[in-house]
Design the sequence.
């Protein structure tokens, strides 16, 4: 019986995810349609770029957690004193963490700039709509 409950929960969760995806797609379509026809393609491209920045930011953020965990596991257990291979692991952990945090911050900054550009583009297109 428990197996059936788990299966139903996963089906419900899958159905909720599908509804959420449809809702997000509908909201995006409505946002794109709020632009004048001549500017919809550019707005869609700007939204795609913003999404890619957010995906990259999240991906590099997850990698940074793996690297800092590697550092703490290799350094925090005390094995660093036993063998030089753990020095290498600790170095890779802290170096990888610094690199991935840097990439995360870069994509975060790019996403913020893109969001400001998109907001200005949207305001400009709305003001032109009112004038027409």
Sequence:
């Amino acid at each position: 019986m428990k197996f059936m409950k788990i299966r139903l929960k996963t089906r419900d969760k899958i159905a909720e995810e599908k509804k959420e995806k449809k809702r997000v797609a509908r909201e995006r379509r409505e946002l794109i349609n709020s632009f004048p026809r001549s500017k919809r393609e550019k707005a869609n491209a700007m939204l795609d770029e913003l999404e890619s920045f957010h995906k990259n930011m999240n991906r590099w953020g997850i990698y940074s957690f793996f690297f800092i965990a590697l550092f703490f596991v290799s350094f925090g257990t005390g094995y660093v004193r036993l063998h030089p291979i753990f020095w290498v692991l600790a170095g890779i952990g802290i170096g990888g963490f610094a690199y991935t945090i840097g990439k995360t911050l870069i994509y975060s900054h790019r996403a913020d700039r893109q969001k400001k550009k998109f907001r200005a583009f949207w305001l400009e297109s709305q003001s032109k709509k009112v004038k027409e």
